[in-house]
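Continuing the series of single-chain predictions for the mutant panel. This is the parent chain; the variants come on the following pages.
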Amino acid sequence: MLCLELSFPPLPVLVTVSKVKFPKSIQHYERTFSLYDIIFVRSGTLYMTEDGIPYEIRENQMLVLEPGKLHYGHIPCEEDTLIYYIHVQHLQARRLVHAEDIRWLTALPITTYRDLEPQEQFMYIPKFKELNTNQIWSLLNDMIDLRNLSVVEQMLPLQALFGQLLMLLQKMSKTSLNYHSQQICDDIIVYLNEHLDKPFRLEEMSQRLNFSIDYLTKCLKKHTDLTPLQYLNRIRMLKARDLLEHSELSLREISSHVGISDMNYFFRLFRKHIGMPPAKYRASFYSVFSDRPMI
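Parent structure:
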């Protein structure tokens, strides 16, 4: 299954949502559109071509038509066909990616109070997909009801429902092809979080999870692009950042809380992940957010 990789911010914005019945023998007209046109077929079949690629969107299927690409109905409907559609304003998709190649657990840079710009992030929407939940139709009907009210008060709730729809579509993008490696990856992450404050030994993790070190490393790297030690150091520094901000523990105590006995190693890791030494980070945080004494 192919998925559209969409970057944000800004988030996609719903322009309109509606439903229409195409009578038998009617076909969609030809156009190049500036918006995303997401089509959901409730009953019947809609025949659409986009950029020379023909699709048969059957009952309980969806297709995302992309902005700037010519699309048209290449065959008239052979029966009455009920469709829901939404028009969405957003940036051009970065790429089409196979669902099994999406790294859902890729670690983003650690955020701090010093960040002034949002990080670039990504969402994934199926290009052409069988719909496996009736929740889609319930959401679409609720969205249409709010849109038809056409009052200011309901426009934010309408966009919120659209956000729920995007989350549901992204959930549908996840493939079961990598279920085993995904499960192993999840088990590794649970283990690392449970042993955050202890010295890390690959052999112990291997024995506990009952897989070889090489296989465990391969599974985690497949889904996060990080080795077990790299992932552990990341969550250690997240914990250290929070302790610096919200506790009065000394730097040595914080280092111990995150399982690092070598202070120099702790300082190097913190600077690498956060961008400044821990003492300077704490001092600058307190100077901005409180009058508490420096530690």
